[in-house]
Amino acid sequence: xxxxxxxxxxxxxxxxxxxxxxxxxxxxxxxxxxGDRSPVAPGEVVAMDRHYFQNTGAYDPLMSLQGxxxxxxSFKAWLCGGSIEILPCSRVGHLYPRQDTRAxxxxxxxxxxxxxxxxxxxxxxxxxxxxHSPEAFALRKAVKPDCTERLQLQRRLGCRTFHWFLANIxxxxxxSEQRPRFSGKLHNTGLGFCADCQVEGDSLGCPVRLAPxxxxxxxxxxxxxxxxxxxFGSSQxxxxxxxxxxxxxxxxxxxxxxxxxxxxxxQDNGVIVHILSGKCLEAVVQxxxxxxxxxxxxxxxxxxxxxxxxxxxDER
Length: 316
Description:
The chain is an alpha+beta fold. It is built from nine helices and 16 strands. It has two domains: 2-96 and 103-168, Alpha-Beta Complex (Spore Coat Polysaccharide Biosynthesis Protein SpsA, Chain A); 176-310, Trefoil (Trefoil (Acidic Fibroblast Growth Factor, subunit A)), CATH 2.80.10.50. The protein is 26% helix and 24% strand. The strands form seven sheets. A four-stranded antiparallel β-sheet has the order 9-8-5-16, with no helix packed on it. The chain has a two-stranded antiparallel sheet with strand order 1-3. 30% of the residues are buried. One of its GO terms (biological process) is protein O-linked glycosylation.
């Protein structure tokens, strides 16, 4: 960053030390930058207009250059009016060592960078990242980063949301019919607990019941998709299903008649209707458990639900 701050040329090029350049590698980058001031290559070799780089906040000064800085730069480019291009005519070889020589401290620094990126740029999708990286979640719980300056930068630049990135830049990462309309813990308004599966190991066939709400519990993260399926946990292959009026977890059905058993309508008044039967999802208290069943819809408090997160279909 010291070199970038003191540079006087029109173009900045960042490159890992262990790179080898093919003759003529720089000219295609300079030619493209002359017509478009956005970053043109991610990762180990990146070139961009110097003024563009500085005006969009440069590299995050509170991130160590131990990995993830290219993600921050790329998200910022796409979300804040720029773009990323890869130019095949510019050839640079990145030489990897035969084995990972990074010290544990370096790996922790990389994880800290990723947590900072999640807290700054991913919005509600950061919860998906934390579900897939328990180490990052634990690090965030221990020391939550101060992202005030980068969030102010987003507002100043008028940046879009990560939801927009998934919908418009990389839709194949998250097929539209599987994107969540609602996500997070599913709270029962009447009883004050969250939907959970309290079976260790394989959750197939597990009855869904209420348990105390806990942020750290992966089994309490649900997603109601645009296909009207309720996905369970981070695996994305288990869905709410019904067996003799009781709600259980079964493999998500992609097609065929069985799929209708797994379709739910979350209505504006907070009730979740099982589309096939027309009955409502209700938490039924019996002895020491609060299991989920289908019951006639009557609007009682035990039939009222809310998710942590709401995702608009066409968020800009």
